[in-house]
Amino acid sequence: MTGLSMGEEGTHPTFLFRGGEVLGPAGLEKTDLLVAQGVIAAIGEAIEAPSGTKLVDASGHVVLPGLVDIHCHTRQPGFEESETLESASRAAALGGYTAIVAMPNTEPAIDSVPMVSYIRDLAKSALCEVFPAGAITVGRKGEKLAPIAEMFGAGVRLFTDDGAGVQDPLLARRAMEYMAALGATYAEHCEDERLANRGVMNEGAVSSELGVPGIPPASEEVMAARDLILARLTGVKLHLLHISTAQTLSMVETAKKAGLDVTCEVTPHHLMLTDSNLRAFDSVFKVNPPLREQADVDSLVQACFEGTVDAIATDHAPHSLHSKETTLDAAPFGMIGLQTAFGVASKVLGSGNSSLLVRLLSTGPAKIAGIERHHGGALHVGRTANLCVVDPNLEWNVLPEEVASKSKNTPFGGIGLEGKVVHTFLRGEPTVLFGEAQR
Ligand SMILES: [Zn+2]
User: Fold this and answer.
1) Which residues of the chain have pLDDT under 70?
2) d(C-alpha 113, C-alpha 117), whole Å
3) How far is the CA of 307 from the centre of ligand 1 (A)?
4) CATH number, domain 15-63+383-437, options 3.40.630.30, 1.10.260.40, 2.30.40.10, 1.10.3720.10
5) 3, 159, 213, 397: which sits with the fewest CB atoms below 10 Å from its CB?
6) Distance from the alpha carbon of residue 316 to the mean position of ligand 1, in angstroms
7) What does pTM read for this prediction?
8) Which three-class secondary structure state does DSSP give residue 37?
9) Residue 270: how many other CB atoms lie within 10 Å
10) Which member of 111, 315, 329, 391 is catalytic?
């Protein structure tokens, strides 16, 4: 869909991964895997490799489907000093991603077919596939509906005003009615702005102690409740972005049990960090929705195991150093996350848990984005070779000089991560080899 160049027939390099574990339909199996002509050409022992095949020792490594990020702020156009599609895609590839969904809160916003085409053109040289999400309302202003049917006709499957929720319930209802008729997914940034009341961090014991204005969990929960009720009314496919509280989770669980077509995502940072991280007033931990309390973190982690959570999404939000280097009040919300997502998820959920990690970081998000034909799922012969190879037990620290993003606002510096991406392949071509981006 991005028009990414495949190269001429026969020009694809051939790679044989030897001695690794491969995530196939029956789970992990120690076997070899051959990539040729852009697809998985063979899986098994003693594969006959064509001449010129590059051998890659994968012993101790695990071969997985490429990761899929359904929530990524690529900042282009409008905020190129923070990130471009190219720099975001390089960070994505280093993080094991073969596909990302670009959020429409650019300047101008992705709220029309020409903007969708413009993003796809920009993404032609990217190191991963880029799927633009469309805005729900014109300019993401929350006033009138964007041309949703036209964008859907141009291939957009996910619509959101992310960065803000749709505040007007009638407009939200109308958007959902349109999208239900089309089969599009309505993705909400759940935040009632009146209740959020220009808060800076989670409202709770820590915000009181620090004297910092709080964002109550209710600002998320009220909009999530509204949307779940409207989804029942309209029959729309509803996706709740970056949910952060135990109460939102419990409402999603109830809605799923009632048969609603609802999915939700959590971010790596909400699975690992809490509002206590803000005690030093470091704006790198300022994010929206805010880091919550340990009880919320515990619920989100548990829901990853139990299946209520459908995807881990980065909400990768680059901000330049100078914009973040100010007071907690004045600093923008957001943190980067593409290169660290696998290491955080793997540390929190267990590095041996490849099937769960793939469900949350690849297969689940691919389904939500509507791109499961070429992304996610168990590896089998004939499938497009969108892959990542990970060292599941490697303990590592993210270093600023290794961050490929134009912005370095990672909250995970100094926090040991577990599990690291070694190689990434996009349609059979290496985008990352031995931890180095190939372009
Ligand atoms: Zn958001």
Assistant:
1) 1-11
2) 6
3) 22
4) 2.30.40.10
5) 3
6) 10
7) 0.96
8) coil
9) 24
10) 315
